[in-house]
Amino acid sequence: MIAGLNVLRIINEPLLKAIAYGLDRTGCASPERNVPFFYLGGGTFDLSILTIDNGFFKVKATAGDTHLGGEDFDNRLVSHFVEEFKRKHKKDISQNKRAVGRCARCARGLTGR
Question: What are the TM regions of this chain, as residue ranges (predicted)?
Fold first, then answer.
């Protein structure tokens, strides 16, 4: 028991993603295939390769980077905007918290966060 629940089976994150994506219901009788799963979180990037064969899943490989995620993309976009502003207007706004904050809001808007 965990937290008062009777645990029948514990599955790993890549399998959970496959099930959430609906691959457990699509083409159960289909031939064996390898499917990549990418996850880009706020601070992590994960990749898993699953083999799906007749409705059964097997995790073939999984890897990730806990220091690469959506926030890193946002920060890179902010740096790009600051450099573009400097190039176009010959003014460095990198020390202006308000201006950098506006760039950050713009970056988050572009990345959907």
Answer: none
